[in-house]
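Tutorial sheet, problem 5. The two components below are modelled jointly, 866 residues in total.
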Amino acid sequence: MAAGPYNYSYIFKYIIIGDMGVGKSCLLHQFTEKKFMADCPHTIGVEFGTRIIEVSGQKIKLQIWDTAGQERFRAVTRSYYRGAAGALMVYDITRRSTYNHLSSWLTDARNLTNPNTVIFLIGNKGDLDAQRDVTYEEAKQFADENGLLFLEASAKTGDNVEDVFLETAKKIFQNIQDGSLDLNAAESGVQHKPSARPGQTLNNEQQPKDSNCSC
Amino acid sequence: MEESVGSLQQGNHPLSKKLKKILDTRLDNDKDMIEALKTVSTFFTDNNIRTRRNLRGEIERRSLLINQQFVDAFSHVVKDLELIHADVQSMTVCCKDMTDRLSATKEQTQELITMTSDLKSEEQRLQVHSDLAQAFLDRFQLKPNEMKVFHGTRDGHLDPGFFAVLEKVQKIHADVKVLLRTNQQTAGLEIMEQMALQQESAYERLYRWSQSQCRSLTSDAIDITPIQQQAMKALQNRPVLFSYTLDEYSTARRGAVVRGFIDALTRGIPSGPPGSPTLESEKKIQGPKPIELHAHDPMRYVGDMLAWLHQASASEKENITQLLSECEKSTEDANRDTLAHVLEGACRPLKVRVEQVLVSEPGTLTLYKLTNLLKFYHDTIRDIIGKACENISLLETINDMYILCRKLFFNSLQYLASKLLDKVELPPSDLSPPRTLNDTIHLLRDIFDSHDSSILPAAERHTDLVQVMTQVLDPLLQMCAMSASQLQPADMAAYVINCMHSIKFMLSLYEFTDQKIEMLSAQIDAHLDTLVNEQAASILMRGGLANVYKTILKHEHDTGPLSKLAGLDRSAMTSAFQHFDDVIHSPDESVLPQVSMLASATLKEVASSRANELVSSAYKVVYDVFTNEKNGYDSATFTVKTPDQIRLLLC
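Model answer (structure tokens):
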């Protein structure tokens, strides 16, 4: 049982994007279940996983939306970028085509999320170094040019998987501390426990609530 | 010694004896004698007569002296002994006194000792009683601090120890039944009643607490505390309170979901949780725009709304699961019902908006895509809520929307189809498929393609599409037939073939169309036959063989030579052959325009070759007749091409 009265003090929403078959669902599964899922079926639409982590002494609940990579789901998955605090953009280091599509994924991510969304580039299948088709340096450069965090990981061995999720959370948390992430814009994908923020006054009178409820 | 000396001085007989005796005496061995002699020698220093005479006296005097000394010495002893005796005497008195006193005391304390030991045993007995009573109390009553925890403070704070106490109360209540079976029934009944009261008040209190806790769960993100989980677990023993608490919870969450949904729709930023600062009015709003900004794009609009609800469903499912996670009894039903109630609020806003989109006539294709989208989200959200999910209003709403959308889609198709028949166009002069047909085919293709890339699982494909196909194709074919009805047979055949071929070509791209394709192929073949016949007839006509051929066929069974018949005489035959020869050298010119208007090169090819086949077989009939001796044409004098040559020429 949790030590405090609450299990966590923040909720961060993540979205995982990238081409079909790069291992998005396996990364999520490895992160939430600490197991490698062989023969992972294609994701239908969007799936969902959670885990509570700790960053700087704060318990944070990650709510992770794993999207289908298949083109036919593009229209559907686009609806899930809304309000993501972190976007994990995955490619397969053994398939250059998945790397080449990154710019289109990045465009989607930039257009559909807010400017503070932390985008983390992940080169998955790091265990298949022999079949490598994209060098670390190249991807690193791409990440640097676009201001993305970057790591190579392996959903199979679990290498760096934890780090990817934690680093993203750390970055988001840092943004909150810097004040660059407006918590109240809940579309930031971060939600804060009301009780964990004591001593704050109610000052939203300027905004009549539900003023445009049209139902 | 004096005696021995005396006996020595006596006479003979006894003397001799004495002497003998003396001589026999071994002085060396007689220590006493030696000692005595030594002593004598200390004072008997002068051996003379006088001294010898005095010796005896001397010895006696000395003996007397010694005895005197003895007596003196002993008189001291006697004196001392007397003293001792006196002491002992007094001691005896003392002792006797003491013994008397002791025995007196003993007599006195006897009673006390008995009393003490009585008290001791009494004490032990009481101790046991007290232990028993304490154990009984521990077992069957609450301690003061527990009572305090149990009844709580004014501010309604619930101590985490509450549940342990509640458990204890329950245990006592259960244990008391044992008492009832013994002869302690009064106590048992009393305790039972007391505990029942305690329990009720505790549940009452727990319920109030949970209710107020649940009522406050109205922010976007909630976290269920362990105490709340335990409270739900405890409340499960009181189904009514449990369900009331869940009602409270679902009402609170329902409000939160509706507010969040409306905010996402209209503001793009949900209102912050109560008590949180809302600074967004000062800051530039970042991030996604409100969903309603995309209302012009039906797919995106509806998709975003449903995706939002999907995410809300998943979050709410987690919340309720967490709330009920400690419960021991199955909570599946409660879980589902609560979730249904939580999500219910979003139904109306969703319904209003989706209906608005649907009635705004977004077009057949969009309607179709929306149908798929609604179905997809219906299934996705259903997967989250759980399998047995009747009466989930959100799902019902989405399903209603799906049914409505599907109906509108088919209505729109229906309308399209009826419009096809309403206003039948005349075929274009080049006999190509009319524009409406092309448009319709294009739409079907779009529908089929969008279905091909559909988000629905493969198992659900095709049933709709077969219906779509039937609903559109039949009127379409009817339209072709109607528009072709005014035409000459050859034109009609070519036109219908063209129309059907373009339909067939489109259908052949999809896998569920086999039957239709088969049907179309059969019809195309039939029309092609017409066209082939026309074409063959036209070639024969132009070549002048037609009449001859027809006459020959008429008289096939006649026995006489055919050259005798009118129209089949030798000159008619030779001129026909002549003419045909001319025509056959330029076969292209003899092709019917209708055949060349066939859109499909393959069909064109097939039509020509089959027509040629017919022509050459007709030619063979005429040739056989001509070269047969019995017909008397004298064919040797006139060179005609053999059927094989003709076949070659036609190819």
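Marking note: Chain B has four domains: 2-116, 145-208, 221-276+287-422, 473-650. Full credit if you identified this.
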